[in-house]
């Protein structure tokens, strides 16, 4: 073992713990620095409140000693009362200030973290979403953020307040009587041990709670999205049963966290009350013996009463801190995940010319899979209309996703306009391509907003022209409010064919150099399909269009057809050529011809 290894092995667990939390705290440290003046004023107001609270026992001591000595006067007592009221009013004003400044800061921190999470998620590639559920990401933006906000808001306030109040109260108690102070603090080590043990378990249990919340959220989301399917298969009872089971697990995990919380507060209260009991016994004896005055005894009890809150706050602050650190660690793991396709804003500019793709010996495998989805593909595509077909799983959709840059590829394997895609700005390249996938992605917005999603400044006339090209205009005009009709989540109010044509209208409106239609015409009837293809053909001048389909009718109207088999290019050519020279294409044509004849 070398010296570095020995040093690493010899480092204490505390060192490992500190290094583990350093990157986690690094997420929020810049936010603290940005709002440092706001925090400084807030904590100054908080310390001011504590100082004013500590003055009141001194005023009470003066009044009690005067009453005990028999020299108290009405004016003197009124003066003490006036100062107590003045201190209370000042404390109320300062309390409002620190709440506004510090709790307000925690909300600003929550806002910054939420924006960072959302911006990071938008930058991530397809591989990121393949490995995470929507419910998990939503949990980071809801439960986790709330825990961090609580820890950096009221949790931080309670920690500072408890520290200042404890030190000041103990200082005043020592000033009154050192021996009595030591007696009052005898139960404190017991509280420290219990807090350390319980909070260590709290971290693990709260992490389980957050994971259960993610599962519950994802289940609800997927059920709501698939509600029509659930009802079609009469699976309501099964879904309800599964939801109840997830809810019971989530509730059980929360109960286990509540057990820790239920022990922290009683233990802190017990320690505080034991200290009070010791002070009442031993302090009372000192007051009777005349070692301390009656006013000192009242002031000491008041300070000890103030010390009970910090003792109880230890458990609460530890709870909030553990929850916050656990959630912050989950957020840190999310935002520190690097995209396999990072943004390349300083790459080579795209040459403005006729669009083309050049694929050279491309072999591609999905992350965490063994067998390649594409094997040694070599292909050149230039302006024109290309059809891609093949058996299920042959790599058709994978090739389209590669063109759209959803997944990374090795250098010198994929070129756009004779430039390696890995040296081109990612956003600039994607801005050249319009993609219509197998499952149309629609938003719970108006028809017009869905069509104009890829081109925000489009005029109503341009939107209508795109809808006519996609053969969806007549359907839209039959909706209650035409183009201003809201289509519901994921286009729930539309049929399958309407969804596909609406997504196609969006792609056509974007007017990009490359149009990729990945089996997105399957739900259209023959007549509508012919209208759509005719409209696409009119816009195909000097553009590159790729249509993935299993329909011979669609493929026969393309300039060239590419057949994939097990990730390889098995054949390519025109419709008539493939009928004569490719068995798979001939069989597919004969089958569809027979089905058409029967219809």
Biggest β-sheet: strands ordered side by side in the sheet: 6-7-8-3-9-10
Any low-confidence stretches, pLDDT <50, length ≥5?
1-19
Class from secondary-structure proportions: alpha/beta
What is the CATH topology assignment of the largest domain? ABC transporter transmembrane region fold
Rounded to the nearest angstrom, the radius of gyration is 35 Å
The largest β sheet comes out as: 6 strands, mixed
**How many DSSP H or I helices?**
22
Described by the principal axes of the CA atoms, the overall outline is elongated
Please bin the fraction of helical residues: 55-70%
Q: What CATH first level of the largest domain would be assigned?
A: Mainly Alpha
- Going by CATH, the homologous superfamily of the largest domain would be ABC transporter type 1, transmembrane domain
Strand content: 5-15%
Provide tags for this entry.
Rossmann fold; disordered N terminus; 10 strands; 3 domains; ABC transporter transmembrane region fold; 599 residues; single chain; four-stranded antiparallel beta sheet; alpha/beta; six-stranded mixed beta sheet
